Amino acid sequence: xxxxxxxRGLWKKASAVVAAAVTATSLMVAGSGTAAAANRDVLxxxxxxxxxxxWVQRCTVxxxxxxxxxxxxxxxxxxxxxxxxxxxxxxxxxxxTNAWVNDSDAQSLFVDNNITLVMPIGGAASFYADWExxxxxxxxxxxxxxxxxxxxxxxxxxxxxxxxxxxxxNAIAGLSMGGTAAMNLGAKHPDQFRQVLSYSGYLATTLPxxxxxxxxxxxxxxxxxxxxxYGSMLNPRRFQNDPMLNLGGLRNSDVFVSAASxxxxxxxxxxxxxxxxxxSPLEAFSLYTxxxxxxxAQAQGVKYAExxxxxxxxxxRNFTGELHATKPRxxxxxxxW
Length: 337
Description:
Radius of gyration: 23 Å
Strand content: 5-15%
Oligomer: single chain
Mean pLDDT: 90
Distance between the termini: 60 Å
Pfam family, one: Esterase
Shape: globular
Protein name: Esterase family protein
GO molecular function, one term: acyltransferase activity, transferring groups other than amino-acyl groups
């Protein structure tokens, strides 16, 4: 073999090695979302490990609609599946953590399953809606709520790219305010949410007196102005965001609703009086509005499953119990065992 031939052979081998390395690098970059989804040990962009453990990441997601980033706690699917479960918080959601991993145990409940938990942080009294104006009366520090846009446009793009969550393979569940929002978002975006679950939500928000009750609740939760949410009492958006009136979008979805009686469970009578006084009427009223919603659903031919426990207050014992009870349903519908 000549020197020239030998050098040519070495050059071909070296070129092949370089090409292989470049190809591998390109695949790693192009498929970073899939890699992150299939490997829980990989942090997504803008993410850090959350203190709750169980592979939960705290991710900072850009929100041009809101004008500032929003933090989301994400637990990637165990085996890289593309199903997602959005868990929405209650009226007093904080900017510190989503309550499903603080007051409940969603992170350990789904840790061995092939579904990505998506738990947005913040949004107190927002009903996870796009508000028409600043949410509070403090106009020097305006609160710009564009939660529907974030949850249905901005966040899905981030989840698809970085955690492999399909935009059309999601369930959405929420408690109290979050239950109301889950029903609205599920009805308005059935292409995104195949399954909708409301735990003690308020599902008939335009009944007589509801505007006043919600006004008082929003003021008490932090000085929020209900007129900035959907406008005046006569604004059509109020009716477009009443779960009782926008059932049409749920015809092809798996729907579950629950609410307890407001009567304390036998082992809850030892709770502090203020918890009994607050938790009982809140849950009883949730039951009333949910029952009204079921009558509307039946009249419109919308199928659903229900659970109305004989005992239970508007508290995390109740909400956690419903999440545990519906876990098999969620995993069956989402094919995420």
